[in-house]
Amino acid sequence: MNYLIGLLRHVFMLLAVIWAAATLNFFLPQLAPKNPITEKLTVLGETSGISSAQIVELTAALNERFGLDRPIWERYLDYLGDIARFDFGQSISNYPARVSDLIAQAIPWTIGLMVSTTIISFVIGTLIGAWAAWRRDSVLLQAVSSMLMVFSAIPFYLIGLVLIYVFAVRLGWFPISGGYSIFSIPAPTWEFAREVLHHSVLPALSITIASIGIWAVGMRGMMVTVQGEDYMTFARARGLTNRRMFLNYGVRNAILPQVTALALFFGQIVTGAVLVEAVFGYPGMGLLLLSSITLFDYPTIYGIVFILIVTIAVSMLAVELIYPLLDPRVRR
Amino acid sequence: MTLLTVRDLRVDYFTTTRVIHAVRGASFDLAPAERVALVGESGSGKTTTALALMQMIDKPGRITGGNALLKGQDLLALDHEQMRRARLSRVAYIPQGAMNALNPVMRIRDQMLDGMADHGRRMGRAEARDFVAAALEGVGLPADVGTRYPHQLSGGMKQRACIAISIAMKPDLIIADEPTSALDVITQQQVMETLIAAQEQIGCGLLLIGHDMGLMAQATHRVIVMQDGLIAEDAPVDRIFTAPRHPYSRMLIESVPSLGDVPQDQVREPQKAGSAAVLAMPATGDAGPSELLRFDHVGKTFRGGFFGGGDVRALAPVSFALAADTPQIVSVVGQSGSGKTTLARLILGFESPSEGRILWRGQPVDAMGGRARAGYRQQVQAVFQDPYGSFNPFYQVDRTLKLPLVNFDIAAGTTDRRRRVEAACSAVGLNADEVLGRFPHELSGGQRQRLMVARALMIGPPLLVADEPVSMVDASLRMTILNNIRELKDQFGISVIYITHDLATAYHVSDYVLVMHQGRIVEAGPPRAVIKTPGHPYTRALVGAIPWPDPSRGWPPVGRSRAGWDAAPVIHGGYPGFVLESGLARAA
């Protein structure tokens, strides 16, 4: 019964967070002094020789077409109704494509790349961190973990550039950019899957190398703390095997904050690693977001940010619901 | 025939600059079924000795010599895996910090079975269930504790669970490292009796480590006193308490605050005329300037969370008044959860009352504005339990001491501040040259706590709240610090609210004692009356459970029934300057 009330409360909080964030998301860009239509038409005017009177007329027509002439509260209410149906209207920069279609095209690429790299780097990083804390006398482990710490200080995109230079330009083992070859058409064939995998190796590697260290450092710190706990001393005094102390007493307790961090990390992966996607020309959400921002494509920005809000809120809910399963102390 | 023979045990710690000889050739024996106390203050080497028996000395420490024969086999000669197998099955260890000795994410049952599985005893479902139930029953816990997590148990239950887990394989020797130091006296007696019963049932030896001579007198057959890594005295319990040969043993025994022999000058009978006069004061009338602090039906209820967890009544409404012109020491005694700390926090202004009013010199504290509140904070000072946590570890202690002088604008100029700090140090018996300019970690616990008293003294508040000021300090220093606190009152006219779980120290230091239980005051009166003739069943249980440093005076049978603990409070009359008024009779 209590769990049900708690669940309802969490879901209510989820909706409230999404509403509040969506509202901010609506009003903040309105504060920007630029109008996307004027922006676009000014460029058009400079290049095509349309008269300024025609531009004014065109601007008014387009403002009406996109509903930008209506009062702000009316647009706000419409906006709320639309986003509830995941309808973000039409893209301005890719007119007349619908924003939801653009996102639907981009999101699998990002999720595929980010989920796999996040899981890989979490598992490897956490294990290395735990081991490095457990075996503080092992020179090899200390060397590996300090090296990872150095890597974690280098930004994703810089590692990406180095990887491109070495493995794509000099050695030619992997393609320089893109999610798949420009000559092929996406289709559910083995051939295409192999190609996608081939293209994703370098972006995945750059993200993994840069983030393993972050997980390792966090885990090592927690593990050192846990090793100083009384229950570790007691476990040792009870003659438990090293393996059991490491896994059931050490890792099991030290991993708790890591799991929280992982869930929050998952919340943000929909925007991808924007710069990594830019460096590799990877057709995911990051690239879409980047191009929408440069072109003041409000509907697309709204759409992406809204998806981001929802995933962050959902992953926070996931933390709230999963954490009690891992840590009995927070159960009610 | 001996069970354990330790000969010339040596443990050294190799720091980068020097070698510390923690244990310097300890030799002692333990007979089968014998209970031996290993006592000493912090740094005496008693815990190191015990850990060495299990080869649990970590770097930079090393066992550098000696042997320890358990039933003829040298524990120190076992290799890593042999030693692992010997732990739990042959040598059991009950840890000091029972509060955190259990893995918080595992059920009690699993923490019992995993150790046995690692010693080759795997059990089927039904067998395991029966085994756990029997083991828990053996320490007086219900079988369903096995399925619970550590945070769902009280401190006493956790310690019992630790005992059950440790002795599950019926070892030859139990080493218990201060197993009850975090528990109140009633729980302490219950847990000790459980441990002794289990030890007698198994028929194994027990090495009990601690510093409480009273407890050792009640629980053991023989006492080994350690000082600076050496064994100072090793004698049967009857002899050591009647005729200690080593001066250090004598000092340890004498430092136990006993309830019998209070020096005559500390016996203070209430002055009847005065108390009658103040008792007649109206309960809620306007406070005259003669009142320092008044609690006017003050209660505190902590509200439960948004969901789950009900309201907790930490303090039932209580009214009392503390006079401004008659400094006194009022002790508030109770176990954890009794509401004594809530009372202290209310006085310090860290919590707001959920009902009633707190008046400071007639002014409601809640209504005070910025300046008035700052003045209030200056006039009500605190000394806390952990003297290390009270200092900023990055500052030399001088800076922490001088800070209030600057903040409250008490002294102007460096020379004046320095002079005041030095004067305060000497007032608490510290040599200023020895302690000033040092960092907190360079000082002993006793020095740190005395500096905290000195700090309070410099500000010269009319009221000091001392929350367990001596519970983390070595026994030999306790009385010194308590005497410092007494001097605050006698020489400087500072009133003290002394919060403690230890009835014996309260008896020594205070003019008036309040005994609290579950948020209510159950007994109040001058210390002699409360301790010599306790009227309330709870106080009687509390007084009875105090371990006396006298083996001939046995522990009275522990009152397991809590009958009468919710009885009406017993008030032994007032004391001039402190008046307990009303609102304490209602049961929660």
Order of helices and strands of chain A: HHHHHHHHHHHHHH
Q: What fraction of the residues of chain B are assigned to beta strands by DSSP?
A: 15-25%
What is the CA-CA span between the terminal residues of chain A? 11 Å
Rg of chain B (CA only): 26 Å
Low-confidence stretches of chain B: 263-287, 583-588
Oligomer category: heterodimer
Largest sheet of chain A: none
Biggest interface pair, counts: A-B, 27 and 36 residues
CATH-scheme architecture of the largest domain in chain B: 3-Layer(aba) Sandwich
Number of H- or I-type helical stretches of chain A: 14
Give the overall pLDDT of chain B as a whole number: 84
Structural class of chain B: alpha/beta
CATH superfamily of the domain at 108-295 in chain A: MetI-like
What is the CATH class of the domain at 108-295 in chain A?
A: Mainly Alpha
Q: How much of the polypeptide of chain A forms β-strand, as a percent range?
A: under 5%
Major β-sheet profile of chain B = 7 strands, mixed
Mean pLDDT of chain A: 83
Q: What is this entry, summarized?
A:
The complex is a heterodimer of chains A (332) and B (588). Chain A is mainly alpha-helical and 332 residues long. Chain A is built from 14 helices and no strands.
Written account of the structure:
The complex is a heterodimer of chains A (332) and B (588). Chain A is mostly helical. Helices cover 76% and strands 0% of the residues of chain A. Chain A has a domain at 108-295: MetI-like (MetI-like fold). The longest helix of chain A has 38 residues, at 190-227. Chain A is globular, with a radius of gyration of 25 Å. The model of chain A has no long low-confidence stretch (mean pLDDT 83). Chain B has 2 domains: 33-47 and 84-254, P-loop containing nucleotide triphosphate hydrolases (Rossmann fold, 3-Layer(aba) Sandwich); 264-580, P-loop containing nucleotide triphosphate hydrolases (Rossmann fold). Chain B contains 20 helices and 22 strands. In chain B, helix 5 (155-166) runs parallel beside helix 6 and helix 16 packs parallel to helix 17 (475-492). The longest helix of chain B has 18 residues, at 185-202. The N and C termini of chain B lie far apart (57 Å). Mean pLDDT of chain B is 84; it is low at 263-287 and 583-588. The A-B interface holds A 2, 5-6, 9, 229-231, 233-241, 244, 248-249, 252-253, 256, 326-329, 332 and B 54, 56, 83-89, 92-93, 95-97, 99-106, 114-115, 118-119, 149, 151, 162, 165-166, 305-309.
